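Researcher: Quick test of sequence recovery. Tokens follow.
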């Protein structure tokens, strides 16, 4: 697994330098990662500084496992669709871990992520679309080899008919497809609701004649124990010290503001699965 230290530094430094020009952040003291906040440009920066490096790490785990499976099958080119991609850390994880495998990435999100210009440059294989997941065409889904739900199943299910979307995915003409699923969690607890949401996709795939040897009702995390520091798992994970402090005055006052919460630096938010379906 490859974790790009320079990528993490560039992301944190870019977002930190930008948010330091935005003035008082106390108005965001109760802001949390829910649908209504993602269109807010300042909240996007707070979100990126807290979550993006850790989520990138998790998607690197998934990307490296995907690479191993593809290499075993001699696959050297894939199409990827990511649903609720946001600041698309999964794209960069794929870029840094697929190596000899070419890929085209289509990222879909209903929110307008204006802070994407703070991210490192991408290659010419990135296509981002601001639209509802429900409006993705059958042709686009049919061309997809790898489907990614990057901690997005709960948000997506609030806005679309998941059963209908699952049926569209399962209508693929392909005989092998992959799902890289990451789930919102705290302290490695199984997110039963979100896993049950994916079961709609799983059941639809089975009805179309697909089978999988991967468990759809289990999730995993990297590291020999819970709450392990990400840097202890892979030394490439290095979060710049400067980006950890957004509100020094609040910290001195023992503020309960979410803005001053430390970034995610352990595997406690990691909860994923990779599934390969064939027929």
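Model:
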């Amino acid at each position: 697994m490859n974790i790009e230290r320079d990528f993490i530094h560039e992301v944190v430094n870019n977002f930190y330098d930008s948010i330091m020009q935005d003035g008082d952040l106390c108005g965001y003291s109760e802001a949390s990662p829910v649908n209504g906040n993602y269109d807010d440009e300042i909240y996007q920066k707070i979100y990126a500084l807290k979550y993006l490096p850790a989520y990138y790490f998790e998607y690197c785990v998934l990307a490296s496992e995907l690479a191993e499976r593809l290499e075993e099958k001699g696959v050297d080119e894939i199409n990827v669709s990511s649903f609720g991609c946001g600041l698309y850390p999964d794209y960069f994880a794929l870029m840094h871990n697929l190596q000899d495998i070419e890929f085209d990435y289509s990222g879909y999100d209903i929110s307008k992520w204006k802070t994407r210009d703070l991210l490192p440059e991408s290659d010419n294989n990135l296509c981002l679309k601001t639209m509802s997941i429900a409006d993705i065409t059958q042709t686009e889904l049919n061309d997809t080899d790898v489907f990614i739900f990057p901690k997005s199943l709960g948000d997506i299910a609030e806005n679309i008919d998941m059963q209908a979307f699952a049926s569209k995915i399962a209508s693929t003409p392909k005989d092998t497809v992959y799902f890289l699923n990451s789930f919102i969690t705290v302290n490695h607890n199984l997110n039963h609701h979100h896993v049950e949401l994916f079961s709609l996709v799983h059941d639809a795939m089975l009805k179309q004649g697909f089978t999988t040897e991967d468990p759809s009702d289990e999730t995993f995390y990297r590291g020999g124990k819970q709450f392990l520091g990400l840097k202890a798992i892979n030394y490439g994970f290095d979060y710049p010290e400067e980006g950890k402090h957004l509100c020094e005055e609040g910290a001195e006052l023992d503020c309960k503001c979410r803005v001053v919460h430390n970034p995610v630096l352990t595997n406690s938010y990691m909860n994923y699965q990779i599934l390969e379906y064939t027929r």
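Residues 42 and 221 are 30 Å apart (CA to CA).
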